[in-house]
Write a structure and sequence with these properties.
Layout (H helix, E strand, L loop, with lengths): L3 E3 L10 H11 L3 E12 L2 H14 L2 E6 L2 E8 L7 E9 L7 E8 L4 H18 L5 E11 L4 H12 L2 E9 L5 E8 L7 E3 L2 E3 L1 E7 L4 E8 L7
C-alpha cells in the first residue's frame, strides 16, 4: 500500500523552482518548448461565488459543465512578456465536495524579463487568491536533436540539486520510442510529497520521440500534466 501526502507550499520568495529547472535546460543545451506553473487550493462555495462575481465585472467568463462538475474559466493573455494566465473555478455539484481554485501561468520563453514578470504574477496570485495551504506545481518541457545521455543527465542533475531517494522507471513503448521516468528529492525545494515515508519533490521524464529527437519534461513536486 502506498501512502501519498502532499504538503502545502510554504512561500519562500528566494526559492524559485522554475529558475532552477531553466538552468538545467540551459546547462544541457536543450531547447525550451513550454513551461507551466499551476497553483491549486480548495475553497468554500461562498469564496467561489465571490471570485466568479469579481471576474464577471472585468473579464469574459467561459462556463462549461462536464458530468457532475461546473467550471468557470477566465483567460488573460495580454501580457507583454508572452505569459498566459488562466483562472479556473471548479465547482462539484455534490455539496460534500469543496470547489477548487486553479491558476495556471504559462509561457514559451524564459528570459530575465520573463522570469521577473512571472514572479510579479505569482506574487499577485498568491496574495489575492490563495492562502498558505495552496499547492504549486511547476513543469517545464524541452527537447534536443540527437540523443540525451540519460546516465550523464541524471548524474549532473543529482549534483546540481543534491538529489536523494532517486528511483527510475523505464517504459519501452515500441522498438522506436522509449521513456524513462525518474523520481527524487532535493532539499533545495520546500514543496514535497511523501510516498512510503520518503519525501519526493522532483519527477522528470526523458522520452525518445524518434532517432533524431528526444523530449525532457521536468516537474515539481510531481508532473500533473499529460506526457
Amino acid at each position: 500500500m502506498i501512502f501519498l501526502f502532499i504538503s502545502p507550499e510554504i512561500p519562500h520568495d528566494e526559492i524559485n523552482e522554475l529558475e532552477d529547472i531553466a538552468d538545467i535546460v540551459h546547462d544541457h543545451e536543450l531547447k525550451l518548448e513550454e513551461w507551466i506553473v499551476t497553483l491549486k487550493e480548495k475553497i468554500s462555495r461562498k469564496q467561489a461565488e465571490d471570485h466568479i462575481t469579481t471576474f464577471k465585472k472585468s473579464n469574459n467568463v467561459k462556463y462549461t459543465e462536464y458530468k457532475h462538475v461546473a467550471k468557470y474559466v477566465i483567460n488573460k493573455d495580454n501580457n507583454s512578456e508572452g505569459i498566459n494566465v488562466t483562472y479556473e473555478i471548479i465547482i462539484p455539484q455534490d455539496q460534500n465536495y469543496a470547489p477548487e481554485l486553479v491558476v495556471v501561468i504559462e509561457g514559451t520563453t524564459l528570459t530575465t524579463s520573463t522570469i521577473n514578470e512571472y514572479k510579479t504574477i505569482l506574487k499577485h496570485a498568491r496574495n489575492q487568491f490563495f492562502t498558505k495551504k495552496h499547492m504549486r506545481f511547476t513543469c517545464l518541457t524541452a527537447s534536443k536533436n540527437g540523443k540525451i545521455a540519460n546516465d550523464d543527465f541524471l548524474k549532473k542533475l543529482s549534483k546540481k540539486l543534491d538529489l536523494m531517494y532517486v528511483s527510475t522507471q523505464k517504459d519501452v513503448i515500441n522498438e522506436v520510442s522509449d521513456k524513462e521516468t525518474i523520481y527524487g528529492y532535493t532539499p533545495k525545494w520546500k514543496n514535497e510529497i511523501i510516498i512510503e515515508n520518503k519525501p519526493l519533490n522532483i519527477q522528470f521524464v526523458i522520452q525518445r520521440l524518434d532517432d533524431e529527437k528526444q523530449k525532457v519534461i521536468i516537474g515539481t513536486p510531481l508532473l500533473i500534466t499529460e506526457y
